[in-house]
């Protein structure tokens, strides 16, 4: 086991030494990349990589690839310790099929549980015409507006749950969540060499991850969902502008597509891990 772990560290460290940008110390102990370095990093994965030895490709298993990816994102103990709770703030833009784009300021506060179902999440959104919050606790979603609880629309509930379950976090915590992973194969798209990994959770929901063979970062993921009796919708979520935050890796721009049409874009402004988040903000005022 120790020999296997050291081999994974060597693989991840070698790739990280070639791809991770330089770091500068920010306020509050947070580590950020310099803007010019971030731009260079965004281009790095688009450059054609040298063709790996075909014999070497065959020896990688899904577990080796995913465990190496976890090391690149910060190692399992570090992720569990640093990302136990935190606050994320940014801008959210929705692009409806009809009508004008809608932009909101958002704040996402969370407390990490033993698995995704046990996580607690509060998403506060401020649109020009209204403000409301969505709360995820015990695997369920409810809303809060003007201090009163309400039942959100099914679309809002589905979007929040999908964003949580079809995520990078689901891959990084696949063991804790009891999910299974499998290697679909290795392919090349637009000059990118990619490992393609399928994850199936306990509810038998499938998420397909496209991981850069150069940097071991998740570049995008795909999944399908649909209303009962309706045609499934194919979703694609792209992760861009990666930065180092408190010794862990996080994307600062996320773009969502529905059947090939861009439907949402999230731009992170700040992420702070390790701050105190009170349990009370996840409780319904109705008790």
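Sequence proposed for the structure above (287 residues):
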């Amino acid at each position: 086991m120790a020999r296997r772990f050291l081999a994974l560290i060597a693989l991840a460290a070698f790739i990280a030494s070639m791809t991770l940008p330089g770091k500068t110390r920010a306020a509050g102990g947070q580590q950020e990349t310099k803007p010019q370095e971030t731009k260079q990093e965004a281009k790095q994965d688009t450059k054609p990589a040298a063709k790996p030895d075909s014999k070497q490709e065959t020896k990688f298993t899904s577990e080796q690839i995913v465990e190496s990816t976890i090391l690149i994102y910060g190692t399992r103990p570090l992720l569990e310790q640093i990302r136990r709770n935190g606050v994320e703030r940014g801008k959210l833009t929705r692009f409806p099929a009809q009508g004008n784009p809608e932009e909101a300021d958002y704040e996402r506060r969370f407390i990490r549980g033993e698995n995704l179902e046990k996580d607690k999440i509060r998403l506060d959104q401020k649109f020009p015409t209204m403000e409301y919050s969505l709360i995820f606790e015990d695997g369920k979603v409810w809303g809060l507006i003007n201090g009163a609880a309400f039942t959100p629309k099914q679309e809002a509930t589905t979007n929040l749950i999908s964003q949580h379950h079809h995520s990078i976090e689901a891959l990084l915590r696949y063991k804790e969540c009891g999910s299974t992973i499998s290697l679909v194969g290795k392919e090349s798209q637009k000059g990118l060499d990619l490992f393609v990994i399928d994850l199936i959770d306990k509810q038998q929901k499938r998420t397909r991850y496209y991981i850069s063979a150069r940097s071991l970062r998740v570049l995008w993921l795909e999944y399908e969902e649909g209303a009962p009796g309706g045609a499934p919708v194919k979703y694609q979520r792209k992760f861009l502008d990666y930065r180092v935050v408190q010794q862990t890796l996080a994307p600062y721009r996320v773009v969502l597509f529905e059947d090939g049409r861009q439907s949402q874009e999230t731009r992170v402004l700040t992420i702070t891990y390790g701050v105190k988040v009170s349990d009370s903000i996840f409780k319904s005022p109705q008790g």
